[in-house]
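Sequence in, structure out. Go.
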Amino acid sequence: MQILYADKYLVMVSKPAGIPSQPDPSGQSDLLTSLQADYPTVSLIHRLDTPTGGVMVFGLAPKATAKLCALVQDHSLFCKEYLAVLSSPPPDAEGRLTDFLYHDKQRNKAFVTDGKRKGSKEAVLDYRVLSTLPDGHTLILVRLHTGRTHQIRVQLASRGLPLVGDSKYGSREKAPFIGLWAYRLTFPHPITGKEITASARPDTEAFPWSLFHDQIPSE
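Output:
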């Protein structure tokens, strides 16, 4: 875990891939509990899937926590950007993906629907290709406009573009963790209103990020 920014109202950290955001039935060490050692008042604001690493923000004061929890729902203000690695390039160098997704909680898996199924919710993201290798592996930058469970994973997989290592959604490539990384968060400070941003790079020595060692944006 790396501390990226901290004041008396909030703390921003880089979550390692493979670590739960908060306590879960697996019983393994989680990020929220680890932070409590140094920040006893820390509160969870949002989550990243266990196999996904990258930037997260936590509240440290009740007023800031309440405002952050409201802010995270406004994707025009709370900007989440991800890096993702695909086994093959999308047909267009950039674009917007819009779907309706249904999350099956028992299976912990999301599905694209026609929007008529009860519980389906609209999911929207923008992507831009950053680099494509001769073997087809492609690095993209994704901005979320909604925050659905497994959104990036299922929207891309539904188009035949599963993330490298994401066997849950159809990838046949082996990887220590899926090719998804929460690269940058940008939002107005809940107390001062001043824009705050933090970014973190994945481990470029580990597959699949090692494929793009020189192409991954600097922090």
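Check: The longest strand covers residues 121-132. The helical segments are 31-36, 62-71, 151-157.
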